């Protein structure tokens, strides 16, 4: 029978097969050793994809220590397997603060964060280490909010590269990755047939766009709710019905929140919904669907399937998925490895850039050259060739006043 | 802790909530008792959706005995729960032939078949029972082939309604149901990101259309392979690339067979495929991908994830899902309950029609009135109203030579 | 300066370039002369595409005489050019009945009809000619209604092939041809931006499906209205909103009727429409939008652009396109030549089949072999190769009871 | 019979009906008179939509003088009609330079440019007028290149608002407007059936995206060619085939260039194309398809339809549309009025902002508040309501470190 470590290694190997961009970078790193001798501290989900990133950095000469950015997001068998190759602190919820501290004791010169936990702790608890650092990378909007607040106070002491604002990241992670996995989570939890359903998407940011696009791709009729007029207009121009949430409440069969704000669906919406409506959240935190309102008005609550709770209101029932937690992580497997391949390739190259370049303290965008390199590697992995400009065309583009035709 | 029976009842209740058409028929059956005293033998998948059908027939006055059409397609907890309400013979693979015989000993006057097993056995082993029968229904193409062969020999002794040729069945079961669940199965087994992948769909019958449509809905680039020129042309006119399988072999990332014939993908195709290509079958039987050719030419074979086998050929590897068995059943949950709602509503109404009407022996199409009733009930369940012709419009349509405009 | 005949020849040449299927048939006909010495009478639209059909039949040895099926559907320059090669009677509205009679005086042995005008006149006025005929083809639903009425009375004396019921015809002519050209007509007449508009499609037959699909392809939000529950359900499952016309009336920006019945949009609908709504008809006759109701309730009517009339009702105005006539013919160029290529290829092969085969009187479907030949030629024209079954696969398909897998 | 002026007024009225955003701004301008006494010089296409803009500015108190930004883009009847209300200099190609100079003699204090002609002439010929100016707006990429070159030299003396870089402009003008009208132009010129065709889109900027999306919406199979890896990757992830132009050359039926660089299609591409391939340009200038290469290698060239030239090469022929000029202007009617409504609403509000605000010299982005106002007005015109944040939600968004869920 396979041991936990064997199963972890198998998962890592499968993920590796889905991450050709990172593999290609790993091969170059192995030759060039750009991270030779650099200590890297990473606070990320402990998953098979992260393991492939860790191996990539180590191939480039780094010594990596890893703790969990979310103590509930640890694949145990992967943690066991990876421990044989790297320094892993993944003790689970009770050990979380200690695990973060343990990474810091190794005095990393580069940090990879998913919520600014390492950089936050360095600034508050170990400012002595900051001077020796090359810098850090950050993967989340929330983390960037914290780091920019530090920067605004003049307190941010190191350069940080905002990986999650890269254009490639936006497209892959939010639009394609979340678009697929959010609907996957809903289907796995419920086995609903989406064709013929009315799916209401609340929020038309990048993730909302991905969700709306895929829902239409399943044959659903899609309604979009937004507060920003430009986004609302784009949704409408792309063929979706757009209306206020209160009006959509009476029409929807499935509701998906992805706004970043709390209580997007609340009592007044539940009150109008049809019997059998399904509620799912695709936003990062479990605040978008008001559990308080659901509980206070329901006459009974019970689990009818794993991850599906039934809230009864008189002769109607609403079904809440995954307790309102982000449904693609809770009910499916989060982003496909191909999506993390792009994110983590940006991370690896950002890490290299911090080490080999000179950066001022502050939050920096991912350099365009890195975006282009990742895109080019991904195209190569997809066996897609593209054109290059001829010299004459490049010259033409450099003209400030090109001829207006013949 | 929940018992097996409790879990089975919970699954049946959830399915019931997804099957409003059958529920509506059940309510009418309960009032009208059209099947009062009629013995019904059913040989179907033993699932929560089938349980809802059984309850519907029993509400109409029937006494139902059930065995499994596929001894591997038994939800054990549902079988346990349903045993308390009906006669269930679901002993698994070793008991399969006995289970079919057990149903026959109850001398059913109507049969519901999913492969002509009950009707086949009645004709071969219990012809004495045929004279007393109202008739049967059949759910599969394969079953109909067998029954029509009997009919061609003049040996078919009872009327049979070809449920799976109903227009509603074609649309729901094949196009929408299989379209969604086949891709669901592939994503669950692999967590692949389908956007950006080239998906090759072999076979453009109803199921193939559904699969191609949904693959495009996931952002995949779709190639269709067909042998029928009309179907191939339709695929092309609908915007898909169409080419021979040998040419597609070199381009695809994911291959899905759904042709009904054996060895659609074989050595010559495997030989041309890219490293990492994924092979899945959506046809009824596990013959479409040549396992013999895969095994004979691979240098090594091993399972890398549950339901994912890796076949190594020199420096390339191909991944076979679910051993080539139908991927939506093997790796996902088969058709959503909403799909079975339509199929089983047709079954229930066909069963009623056999009992209350006079039918000649032979294979019959589902009467148009039944198709319309099911569609109308489904629309009602979706809260969709439609128009009716005015009297003047109906009169106009009845003219053989209407005025050609003003 | 180009003469009318020159312009006609140029149009015919352009059409010929777009009709590779007919060209391929013409080359075979020229070699094989299947129509040698056969008189063919055709009553069709007099267009460049029809000219290509006439040339094809003549290449096969036929002598063709042509009159106009619709006296308003004559491309004058084409009529002039074609007169030099064939017998053309295209005198326009006042000469229409005489033109039909002129074709009959030539005693055609095969007729090609687009509304049963030639066959109707033969049965009523020249029954003496029927005995010598091979038969006829019919291109319209209306014509088939008339011919089937004759058949029901036992009066239909010749075989007729129902070209417009061919599967290839349905797909091309109605779904792809009309789908594109109806929206083309609306855009040409109005220069409306369809993205962001709500387009209401009344009728979800083949043409309605094409129109709905293309409207969605333009980025419109589409509502479908239907009276048939199965069609309504399909529309809904394909992701469209479905509702009664009265409810849609208040939501639509553009209304397209394609039902085949009169007064689909009438006073009660106009009453609810938004200011600026646009009304177009894609059905064969100009009866679907009630002009009587528009006129009787409008306070003023005037043409604001060619083919656009403004009907004012208090503070709202509705815009009627092309006086309610079929908008793809009136405001655009009808079906693209590539569509007519398929229709006319079916015509040419049906004509050959009538001449070389033995047919009983009555309405007949297009033989499957002809459908397949046309599809195969069209695929060849598109440079698309397809697979063929292996012998083993063909054998498998011929089994009545194939093995159920391994 | 209608006079030219009558026809012009009818066109302006129709456009006005399609431009509700501008109408709404005009109503406010009429009340508030924000441009009272301000001379505005406009160098734009002289069309019915521009006339609606001119009326809007005049309603706000401005006196407007207009010349043509492209001497070939003048709707004569509109010019005649507008002359009765405004100062119009539209003498055509020979008078173009004089017309621009005539506008300058009126010493405009705000300029509206479509290629930087007025601002260019002011800087080079009438620098004396610059000091008195509020500033200008610019509608084209080319114009901005010129103005930014001036700015880089320190020579730009006035503020300029870059209207065509507004997010609303990008979406409407390029994606939705050009997407529809480019394909409309191709269909009008050729009456091609796009379903089943392979359409090659060269360039995947905003316009290329719109063209690719709409081509797929017509049922075409779409190939994208790009030089930028990120754009190429997005095209691929959105489901399009991506390959080098040389490879696409052998596969395409229709080629559409929209890259901004010259000679994108040239001899080596023509050499590989299929017989009958159609070439169209959707880029601003007629340089993207190499006419030189077409002419030098063709054995014969002739016009076969208006706007369609046939270039013969041995046994193949290629068809060039509109001589390689931008096909939506040359063969259709350019952007729909609904598109210009958004562009010109941005222009009108930018003009107001320049007059009422204080701006430094230099090129400025359209203020976000203007974008939001235009979007909100457009939504209102579409009868679309949207949500607003609750106070609690707005507070939550302002937190730098929001609670991470419950």
Defining key terms:
homotetramer; alpha/beta; Rossmann fold; 2 domains; 17 helices; 15 strands; 17% strand; Adenosylhomocyst_ase-like_sf (chains A, B, C, D); NAD (chains A, B, C, D); hydrolase (chains A, B, C, D); EC 3.13.2.1 (chains A, B, C, D); Adenosylhomocysteinase (chains A, B, C, D)
Put the structure in a nutshell.
The structure is a homotetramer of 406-residue chains. Chain A is of the alpha/beta class.
Sequence-ordered SSE layout with sheet pairings:
The structure is a homotetramer of 406-residue chains.
Chain A lengths: L3 H14 L2 H13 L6 E6 L3 H12 L3 E6 L7 H8 L3 E3 L6 H10 L4 E4 L3 H9 L9 E4 L2 H12 L6 E4 L4 H24 L7 E5 L3 H12 L3 E5 L3 H9 L3 E2 L2 H5 L4 E4 L9 H6 L5 E4 L9 H7 L2 E6 L2 E6 L2 E6 L5 H4 L6 H20 L5 E3 L3 H14 L9 H8 L8
Parallel strand pairs in A: 1-2, 1-4, 2-3, 4-5, 5-6, 6-15, 7-8, 7-10, 8-9, 10-11, 11-14
Antiparallel strand pairs in A: 12-13, 13-14
Helix-residue proportion of chain A: 40-55%
Distance between the termini of chain A: 75 Å
* Overall number of strands of chain A: 15
Uncertain stretches of chain A: none
């Amino acid at each position: 029978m396979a041991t936990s470590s064997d199963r972890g290694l198998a998962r890592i190997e499968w993920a590796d097969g889905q991450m050709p961009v990172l593999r290609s970078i790993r091969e170059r790193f192995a030759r060039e050793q750009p991270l030779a001798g650099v200590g890297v501290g990473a606070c990320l989900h402990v998953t098979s994809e992260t393991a492939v990133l860790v191996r990539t950095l180590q191939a480039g000469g780094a010594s990596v220590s890893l703790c969990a950015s979310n103590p509930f997001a640890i694949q145990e068998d992967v943690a066991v397997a990876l421990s044989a190759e790297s320094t892993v602190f993944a003790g689970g919820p009770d050990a979380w603060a200690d695990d973060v501290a343990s990474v810091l004791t190794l005095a990393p010169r580069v940090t990879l964060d998913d919520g600014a936990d390492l950089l936050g702790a360095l600034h508050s608890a170990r400012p002595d280490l900051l001077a020796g650092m090359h810098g850090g990378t950050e993967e989340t909007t929330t983390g960037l909010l914290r780091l920019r607040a530090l920067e605004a106070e003049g307190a941010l002491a190191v350069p940080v590269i905002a990986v999650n604002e890269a254009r490639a990241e936006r497209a892959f992670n939010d639009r394609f990755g979340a678009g697929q996995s959010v609907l996957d989570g809903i289907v796995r939890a419920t086995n609903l047939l989406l064709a013929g359903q009315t799916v209401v998407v609340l929020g038309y940011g990048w993730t909302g766009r991905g969700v709306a696009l895929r829902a239409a791709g399943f044959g659903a009729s899609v309604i979009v709710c937004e507060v920003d007029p430009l986004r609302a207009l784009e949704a409408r121009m792309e063929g979706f019905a757009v209306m206020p949430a209160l009006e959509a409440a009476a029409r929807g069969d499935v509701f998906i929140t992805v706004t970043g704000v709390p209580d997007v669906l609340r009592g007044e919406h539940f009150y109008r919904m049809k019997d059998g409506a399904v509620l799912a959240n695709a936003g990062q935190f479990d605040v978008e669907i008001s559990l308080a309102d659901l509980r206070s008005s329901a006459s009974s609550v019970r689990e009818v399937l794993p991850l599906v709770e039934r809230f009864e209101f008189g002769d109607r029932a609403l079904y809440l998925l995954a307790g309102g937690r982000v449904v693609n992580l809770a009910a499916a497997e989060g982003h496909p490895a191909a999506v993390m391949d792009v994110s983590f390739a940006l991370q690896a190259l950002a890490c290299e850039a911090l080490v080999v370049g000179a950066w001022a303290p502050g939050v920096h965008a991912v350099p365009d050259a890195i975006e282009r390199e990742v895109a080019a590697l991904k195209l190569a992995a997809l066996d897609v060739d593209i054109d290059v400009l001829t010299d004459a065309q490049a010259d033409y583009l450099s003209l400030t006043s090109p001829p207006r035709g013949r």
